[in-house]
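Possible regression after last week's pipeline update?

I re-ran a chain I had predicted before the update to compare outputs. Posting the input and the new output here so someone can diff against the archived version. Not blocking, just want to make sure nothing changed silently.
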Amino acid sequence: MPVSRRALVAAAVCLVLPLSACGSGGDDGGSTDASGKVEGDITFQTWNLRANFKPYFEGLIADFEKKYPGTQVKWVDQPAEGYADKISADAAGGTLPDVVNVSPDLVAPLAKAGLALDLDKAAGQYKKEYLEGAWASHRIPGMTGTYAFPWYLNTGPLFYNKSLFKKAGLDPDQPPRTYDELFADALRIARNSDGEVSTLANVPTVEDFGRYGVELMNPAGTAFAFNDTKGVQLLTKYKELYDAKALDPQALTATPESSGKKFLTEAVAMNPGSALDLGNFKKQAPSLYKNIGITDQITSTGHVNMYVMGVMVNAQSKRKPAAVAFAHYVTDAAHQMSFAKQVAIFPSTAGSLDDPYFTKEDGTDETRVRVAAAKSLKNAVNYTPVLFSEQMKTALRNEVAKALQGKESPKEALDNAVKACDTLLRQQG
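New output (post-update):
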């Protein structure tokens, strides 16, 4: 997957696999036994990484083959567009690669179809090498087991425009740290700019409800629950912001890219981002960069949101020992650290975030963001439920839009969203 925050936010569409996919292509009916000699040819599939990281992966594969003589890794890279469809087609046709780059929402239907190897059983000895929250991110509600090695993580701060805060009469060095402060500051900025400056540019997503402290699903993972009192409270606040133009009027159709442009042109006072964005600010908007403020994600739970990528082993692989060994090799501490130094992502391995690279500042904004993000990742949570498909995201977004436009009350909108998402959940099987 492209290793920017925005790419990580844009999770792929949910897969619907035919029952015929179960048990296809294997030599042992999907056994979780991965013991035995590491040998043979395997295929490794990544998600839009070849263009920027070809030397890294070619070197990694060469080192693995040297460590395990008799192995050969064929690397295939698929474009970002249509990635989920490609996996679905391979799964149905019995041509799924041995080792596959996935996100949690992609691994869920594969696990249900019996195509993702349960690593708790096949590779449980490696569990302690990873952050607890990262290892848990590829667990599926209603199933036992973990279905991918955690790979790289990402999170980011909130950026804010100090100049716009100052113009509104707010202390530019005291950004909001709670939701109450955020909503109060946003209303003030809108009021003092006669509606010309919004503070936020995006409608609330499922992760925002999670950060606010809303229970997103029931404990069994069989039904959604974000239409509770807290959920209604959050959407009611957003409606108030929308009416006051404290939430950008174009938020209903905004994308992360369009929201970023609004922030760049100083029409919006706050925007989430990552260390990758600072370079863009410096090049594209020097006046903004001069006034950039950096603060923590706002959360009621004490846990920031993280995005996580994983590496799954095909349960039907004919070379399970080699596939598990390679998936672990790609995601072990040494290789995650070397990858993190090439691009602004973070390793999911235990102890890696204590490396000076992630703990020592050198006075630059880039290291300030990196150090703060690394610290927050130690107990971060992937709020987006593993079973929350792209269709569900659309259903929630549509109902949120109706509430903000006054076509439905916040309670009606969230009740309808939960009903639609529960229907889609049942269709997943």
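Follow-up from reviewer: compared with the archived run. Residues 1-29 have pLDDT under 50 and may be disordered. Marking as no regression found.
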